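TOPIC: backbone geometry
CONTENTS: sequence, structure tokens:
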Amino acid sequence: MGKYKYLLLLALAGFCLTTIPVSAQTILYIPVDGRPVNLAYVTDTAQAAGVDIIAPPAAFLGSIDRPGDPDSLWKWLFAHATAADSVVVSSDSLLYGGLMTSRTHGLSPAVIEERLLNFARLKELNSQMKLYVFSTVMRTPQSGEGGEEPSYYEVYGTSIFRITSLRDQAEGQELSQSESDELSELLAKVPPTILADWYERREKNFRANQQLIDYAKQGSFAYLLLGRDDCAPFSQSHLESRHLAAETADLPATCYASFPGADELGMLMIARAVNQAAGRRPTVRVRFAPGAGPDTVPSYEDVTVGETIDAHILAAGGKPSVSGAVDLVLAVNTSWDGVTHEADSVFNHVRFQVAPAALTRDISDELKAGQRIAVADIAFGNGADNTLLAELKKRDLLFRLEAYSGWNTASNTIGYAIGQGLLAAHMGLKEKNRLLAVRFFDDWAYQANIRDEVGREVLFPAGGSWFHLDKLSARITGETERRLLDFATANFPAYPLKDFKVSFPLDRMFEVKIELH
């Protein structure tokens, strides 16, 4: 056995000896919907950390093609609340039936108000229970593809986005004559009934978030986290977030936060509940790749990652630190110029690049110093940076990490890396490495490489749709599984693959579910 591998085994053995046991607790968890990133991966992480986490039947939760059942969720929650130490719940599920449904529902204000009252009733039922609530400001996407918005958004979405962008801008500065003319032209282009329908639904969401903020002010919640789903520097989401921020100015950071993101919120709140139950406030130090680093404003977001990361650390129950030994080091991979291209673009071909190579050296140095490392890979949107992972592989560092994340938006990645990284302190080596392998399969192998390959080489030649696999589902699943196994053999052959399952729970190419046992 080589000297380096011998030292590595000693380091891994030391990890097992220093695992921190989590205090016994029961957490009830209602995610924003039933997608793997919100349900399966979160509960899997909590269980790996020794948490007794209980989620409702999957049939009660929403999905992309069907709403959840808020009334059944509330009944389930009331039935189990007296036995819970902590409750972590999505208001979008409990009010509308899920994140997707929050964008398309036709619920009356009276129904939403009645469901909001249940939060007060829940607290009365178990006054000792810690109630963690996360909600979202409805997103303002720049286009309507994918079927996640009202059907008219596919036609008028780009115009609606631009209308809200100009209106948001107009609140802080005067529009130029050309911008005013553009706004008038766009308003003439979008039918008034369509614009009214879109704004009416947003108003319901805005009022619901105001009520949740009032509950937080009254002390009903242990914590309220308000995510800004797929936002932009100028948009309706940004405008509403600014107005809500004015109402939360007197809320301390110990009970409220708001930042870009949606699908990472459940993971963060589970981490916070675990940390608070254990009476711990772990310290986290951030190391950026050279270049734009903390000044990067990623795609789908409206603030710099430097601001976002600190907010995520605090939300997870941690404490940002600027130097010295800490409980966790968060290594953040940003592009040199701060531009986040898509992971399936030509910019993500494996080749030597200064920023990821330098960050890998920093990670190696931190590990040698005895630090635990989580990696937030946000150089690209919707997938891993192939160059960074190749560098980590070359130095045999992949499974020396506590956590890795590189999926969807920057905030989704950041929240997962922090949440799983902090919870990894409660895990054994086998479970920690299994969760790492899931992310390598999902974010690196599939999202950054195989998804596009299978689409070009199998799906599209067969006349298939990116958003509806339908009759091609079995073929696409088999082909994806074969390629994932080949990828694992080539890139992390030492990981013991036994029970390995791939599925497409939403019958579309965007998400894949990886199961390892």
In short: The radius of gyration is 22 Å. The longest strand covers residues 130-137. DSSP finds 16 helices and 15 strands in the chain.
